[in-house]
UniProtKB/TrEMBL annotation:
Source organism of the structure: Apteryx owenii (Little spotted kiwi)
This protein's name: Bifunctional lysine-specific demethylase and histidyl-hydroxylase
Gene Ontology MF term list: histone H3K36 demethylase activity; histone H3K4 demethylase activity; iron ion binding; peptidyl-histidine dioxygenase activity
Enzyme class of the recorded protein, top EC level: oxidoreductase
Keywords: Dioxygenase, Iron, Metal-binding, Nucleus, Oxidoreductase, Phosphoprotein, Ribosome biogenesis, Transcription, Transcription regulation
Cofactor stoichiometry and binding remark: Binds 1 Fe(2+) ion per subunit.
Length: 472
């Protein structure tokens, strides 16, 4: 078991300097979450730190600790998820591994204490009380509407999937060994207190999860205790461990994470194939054959000069045309993200009101939940595949499977997996779609299409998918 020091040390000088302004400003209680826009939601999450300062000084660079001492915010955080919620949730059919992990850090290693099948609340509580085990609850936004609202807005804000896990740890115990993650992490302390230690990364902006041994990580760079209402952020690759102090009945926190596999490297892997494919249509250099027996050679160093020349040519083309397509990353995001959380206004996801006509004025709605891509025609795989325009959206996504990974694969076998929802249009519709996306209000008859019939058909198709509303 990692050392836990009986008396928690004061925050290091570095963390004190970083958080000094936050603590001073936090003397005035920050407001609760603002759902007016994705930007206002994120602003209220990191309050009193300002958005510009956060991205200039902390994002992907160093940890941020915001200690608030605000009873109202503490009560709100506690409402997001409590230990007492587990009893009711277990009645809904939770399963070990899929929904819940029971674990404990023993001698620097994670020991999983899961049983088989469905989770019994009585067994879970017994393991929690007697074995000092941590309860790790996967993706609570599937059950808790307030977390759904928060994460849906954050997905709009970041343009990246946002997952979460709840960790409930009894006093004098630690659930996980020192490790680092491949995601940007925001931690909200909900109940009790948690003693945290952060360490200098061994891999900056890591691309994968990894456990680190105590003798490799050295002394903590930051050490502090989180209390209800407090917020902690740290970049991917930050080594961390946390325990619940003695005398505190339990600690509950939610970890909200984002930006997994969302780097420039990932974007290039997604976009470069399309750039090569398009360039090869126009430039014979990319259609000439590779040397004989190149694929049989152990050392292909002689070909690097030619490849370097081709890559420079691709870079020049990109600089001149400014066209770069990212289809797979866009589709993965839109297919797997949360649907809008509309509360009592769920009728917005059902077509209604006036049908769009040629003289109608229309407005795009759910802009943050829809994307436009240009791809080869998916419905004519055996023929010469023309390029088509696809409009994908997340309005019909299933909250119940959000970020569940392997669970989606199992659902696929049963025919209930996440599907791509959207529309398919000829390439000639692209300018009209861009017109709708880039203007507040558009008159149907002014859409950039040749015939009035095409204009009405485009508006009606978007209206049927609830992507536009008729203003007049």
């Amino acid at each position: 078991m990692p050392k836990k020091g009986g008396k928690h040390t004061e925050m290091g000088k570095e963390m004190q300097a970083q958080c000094k302004r936050a603590k001073v400003e936090a003397a005035c209680s920050p407001s609760l979450m603002s759902y007016e826009s994705p930007e206002s939601l994120f602003g209220s999450l990191i309050s009193p730190i300002k958005e510009e300062m956060f991205f200039r000084e902390y994002w992907e660079q160093k940890p941020l600790l915001v200690q608030r001492n605000d009873p109202l915010l503490a009560a709100y955080y506690q409402s997001l998820f409590q230990f007492s919620d587990l009893k009711e949730l277990c009645c809904q059919g939770l399963y070990y591994g899929r929904d819940v992990n029971i674990c404990r850090c023993v001698n620097g290693k994670k020991k999983v204490l899961n049983k088989e099948g469905k989770v019994s609340y009585m067994q879970l509580k017994k393991d929690f009380d007697q074995k000092k085990a941590t309860v790790q609850f996967h993706q609570p936004q599937r059950f808790k509407e307030e977390l759904w609202k928060i994460q849906e807005k954050l997905e709009c804000y970041f343009g990246s999937l946002v997952g979460s896990n709840v960790y409930i740890t009894p006093q004098g115990s630690q659930g996980l060994p020192p490790h680092y993650d491949d995601v940007e992490v925001f931690i909200l302390q909900l109940e009790g207190e948690k003693h945290w230690r952060l360490y200098k990364p061994t891999v900056h902006l890591a691309r994968e999860y990894n456990v680190e041994s105590e003798d490799r990580i050295g002394s903590p760079t930051h050490e502090f205790v989180l209390k209800p209402g407090d917020l902690l952020y740290f970049p991917r690759g930050t080594i961390h461990q946390a325990d619940t102090p003695l005398g505190i009945s339990r600690s509950t926190h939610v970890t909200i994470s984002t930006y997994q596999n969302n780097s420039w490297g990932d974007f290039l892997l997604d976009a470069i194939p399309g750039l090569v494919f398009d360039t090869a249509k126009e430039d014979v250099v990319l259609r000439t054959s590779i040397p004989r027996q190149l694929l049989m050679q152990v050392d292909i160093a002689d070909s690097t000069k030619k490849l370097s020349s081709i890559l420079r040519m691709l870079a020049d083309r990109l600089e001149n045309t400014r066209e770069l397509r990212s289809s797979d990353m866009k589709k993965d995001f839109i297919m797997n993200r949360l649907p809008p959380c509309l509360g009592n206004d769920s009728n917005s996801l059902t077509p209604g009101g006036k049908l769009p006509k040629l003289d109608s004025k229309i407005r795009l709605q759910f802009r943050d939940h829809a994307i436009i891509t240009v791809e080869p025609d998916q419905e004519n795989a055996d023929e010469i595949r023309k390029e088509m325009v696809y409009v994908y959206h997340s309005l019909k996504n299933r909250r119940e499977t959000h970020m569940m990974g392997a669970e989606d694969d199992a659902a696929s076998e049963e025919g209930t997996s996440q599907q791509t929802h959207g529309l398919r249009f000829p390439l000639s519709y692209l300018d009209a779609l861009k017109q709708i996306w880039s203007n507040t209000i558009v008159c149907v008859k002014e859409l950039h299409l040749i015939s009035d019939e095409e204009k009405e058909n485009l508006a009606l198709a978007l209206w049927t998918e609830c992507l536009i509303e008729v203003i007049i």
